[in-house]
Specification:
Blueprint: E1 7-10, E2 13-16, E3 19-20, E4 28-29, E5 50-51, H1 70-82, E6 88-91, H2 101-113, E7 122-125, E8 138-139, H3 150-156, H4 158-167, E9 177-178, H5 191-202, E10 210-211, H6 214-219, H7 223-239, H8 244-250, E11 256-261, E12 267-274, E13 285-292, E14 295-302
Parallel strand pairs: 6-7, 7-8, 9-10
Antiparallel strand pairs: 1-2, 1-5, 3-4, 11-12, 12-13, 13-14
Helix pairs in contact: 1-2, 5-7
């Protein structure tokens, strides 16, 4: 009964309907015959018909029956386009197959992948099952979550899935991370959010991805800080800097971490905790505390502008640092 997905296939004909009855005589009502320029036909009594497998995107997207040759026909067309010089392939919507999914997700991908010459340097999929591991370098990214929910949804979805993907010789994409401008309705994308996601992803050696346009990046007042977070974590992954003990520590779903550059500009990983009552519970100021070398530190910033923050302690009690050095 989902809108735009109520389509019957009877022989050569597609018929849309408004609803159906659940008592005898069983009927479909509000029918429109011959939709999508299909051929209206007559069939004998008792003829088997069924629902057309329309995807969640509506009548313009129909799942292919993997027991037919349709997937191969589509693969041939894709292979002709691929020959133009592409190097990266993304299987979007590749969960859109009939069951059993453990078989057909990878099977549908393979029926396309096997015709791509030369093979893609990288390939990713909206869905990735066990037998996708030899084709896809990443997959199973979740759609964009709002900033206020990003940390919780990261733990709820990709964080829980990462160990399963590792058991399948592969990894998932801890994205897509949206890029939100701070404003009246949201605090926007902030460094601690990206630190949280990338640190949890690094625990399983998984990548992250940003879903944004250049104009938004330019307009966001914290883009330089946000991308410094990503730069550090990507550097850590590239250098294989994390130890097994680090990874185990990062797998704590409740604990947040900050990746510092110490006095010698070397990486240093420390746990941190958010302070929630800064500046009269202002939502414009973010602050976290951490301990290192027997001293207490606080890192803080305004989400969208330069502001003056009044601190109650005496000046001699504080040292303000731009960096550890």
């Amino acid at each position: 009964m989902t809108p735009n997905r109520r389509v019957l296939k009877v022989g050569t004909e597609l018929i849309s309907y408004e609803g159906y009855t659940t008592t005898h005589p069983y009927t479909f009502y509000g029918c429109e015959r011959g939709i999508d320029k299909t051929t209206i036909n007559a069939q004998p009594a008792g003829y088997m018909f069924g629902l057309l497998d329309v995807s969640e995107f509506g009548a313009t997207s129909v799942y292919l029956d993997q027991y037919s040759s349709l997937q191969d026909e589509v693969a041939d067309g894709i292979a002709d386009l691929w020959d133009a010089g592409f190097e990266f392939f993304y299987f979007d919507g590749s969960e859109g197959v009939n069951p059993p999914f453990w078989y057909h997700v990878a099977g549908a991908q393979y029926r396309v992948f096997s015709k791509l010459q030369p093979e893609p340097i990288f390939a990713e999929g909206a869905a990735k099952t066990h037998f996708s591991w030899h084709m896809l370098t990443g997959g199973n990214a979740f759609d964009v979550f709002r900033p206020e929910k990003l940390k919780a949804e990261t733990i709820r979805h990709p964080f829980r899935e990462a160990p399963r993907m590792q058991d399948n010789f592969t990894r998932l994409n801890f994205g897509w991370l949206g890029y939100w401008l701070p404003g009246d309705e949201t605090i926007g994308t902030q460094p601690d959010q990206l630190e949280f996601v990338t640190s949890k992803a690094a625990a399983w050696d998984c990548p992250v991805s940003i879903h944004a346009d250049p104009a938004t990046l330019v307009r966001h007042p914290r883009t330089a800080d946000n991308f410094e977070v990503l730069r550090r974590w990507e550097e850590v992954r590239a250098q294989k800097w994390l130890t097994d003990a680090n990874r185990q520590m990062l797998r704590d779903p409740e604990q947040e971490f900050i990746l510092l550059l110490d006095e010698g500009s070397n990486f240093e990983l420390v746990p941190c905790d958010r302070i929630t009552n800064v500046a009269g519970d202002s939502t414009d100021v973010m602050a976290f505390v951490f301990e290192r070398k027997s001293a207490l530190y606080a890192v803080y910033w305004h989400i969208s502008a330069d502001r003056r923050l009044e601190l109650p302690p005496q000046p001699e009690d504080l040292v303000v640092l731009e960096s550890m050095g």
